C-alpha cells in the first residue's frame, strides 16, 4: 500500500515529465529541465557578491576620493584621529578649539564633516589657527539659563576664610531671610559689615555695635568677593551734630540742649524720636536715636546726667519748630534688625540675585544646605574672583554687562559650563555662534568681575596663525 511519501515522489515525477515535454518536446529527457539556467544564475550571483565584497574591503582600507568637504564653511574632523581642521585658501588649518573653528569657518553657516585620512591625503596642510583659551564646547541656544544666581560661602573651606561659590541657575534650594533679619560679617581686613536687605553697611566702630545691640555678637568671616555681591549701602556711623551741648530751643516748658534726643509717646502707637538741633526738632528713627545717645560725644548734651531719650508730651513736640537740617542717615534701618545665625547648623550664607534691565539686580540674603555648595575651581589669584563656579553641565548664560540699572555696558558675554565669561565683540559674533535672537540677562559688571575672564571670541583672531614653538609643522 502506498504511503504519502510515495505519492509525493510520483507527483514530482509526473510534473518533471510534464515540464520536460513542454520545454523540450520529450517527456523522457534524462536531464532536469532548466538545470543549466539555475546553475548559471547561482554562479553569477556568487561572483557578484564576491566582487562587492572585494570593492567594499578596498574602500574601507584605502578610502579617498571624497572632496565634497573642500568648502570654506566646512569644519573637517579626521575620522581616524579626531583632528579638527578648517579649509582656508586651499589649505587645511588645524583649529585649536571648536569655537575658533566655527568662527573661522563662517559661524552659523559652518558644517561639521567627518572625512577619512585618505581623502585628506595630498591636500596642503598649514599651521594651526585659533584663539588660545577659547571654549571647545559651546552650549546650544536652547540650553541657555535665565534663572537666579547664588553667590554662596563654602562653609567647609578653611578655618580662616570660606570660599566664594557662584551658582548660575543651579537649582539649589535657597531660603530667604525675613526682612527684619541681618547678618554681621567681617572681611579679611577686619572691616565689619551688616548685610541687610541686599546691601552691605559698613560699621565704623564699636560704638555702633553697642548702639545696635551687637556688642557681644561674633561676626562671620567672609571673603571680599562674596561681599561684592551686595550693593554698598550707607555707612553705619554716628551722625555729626553741629553745636552739640549748646542751648537748644524750648520744647513745651522744657529747656533743651543741642544733641539731646526727645521721645514722644502716644498711647497705642510706637514712640517717636526727635533730635534737638539749633533750628528746631528733627524727626529721627529708633536706630539713629540709639546711635546718637550711645556716642560718647553726646555727653556734652547731658551735663551731669546719663545720655538717654528724654520723655516729652506729644503736644510739646507738635508746637515746636521743625529743623531744616538733613543728616546723612538715609538708607539706614529704621530699627536695629535681628541678627540671624550664620555658618552653623549645616547652612551657608548666600546672596540670591535676580536680574531686571530697568530696575537692576534684586539681592536677597539667603541660606542653602552647605553640602550643595560646590563647583568648578577657578584657580583665580585675584581676590575679586570667586573660588568656584557652578553652571549646569552642557548649559551656559548669555549676559549683557550693566554699569548701572538701565545703562548697558555694550559688552555681551557668553558664560560656559566651566564658569568662564567670554566677551563677544559684536552682534555678528553672537549670531555666528548660534545665539541670534536670544535675549541676554542683564548682570552688573561688578558681579561679572567675580567670574574668571576668557579671551574675546573674535573671528579675525580665530583665523590667526599660531606659532609652533616645538619647531614642527602640522601635516
From TrEMBL:
Any one Gene Ontology cellular component term annotated for this protein: plasma membrane
Residue segments, region Disordered: 454-475
Subcellular location: Cell membrane
Domain of life: Bacteria
InterPro entries: T7SS_EccB, T7SS_EccB_R1, T7SS_EccB_R3
Record keyword Transmembrane helix present: yes
Entry's transmembrane regions: 38-58
Membrane topology qualifier: Single-pass membrane protein
GO molecular function terms listed in the Swiss-Prot or TrEMBL record: ATP binding; hydrolase activity
Pfam families in the record: T7SS_ESX1_EccB
Keywords: ATP-binding, Cell membrane, Hydrolase, Membrane, Nucleotide-binding, Transmembrane, Transmembrane helix
Keyword Ligase: no
Family under the similarity heading: Belongs to the EccB family.
Official protein name in the record: Type VII secretion protein EccB
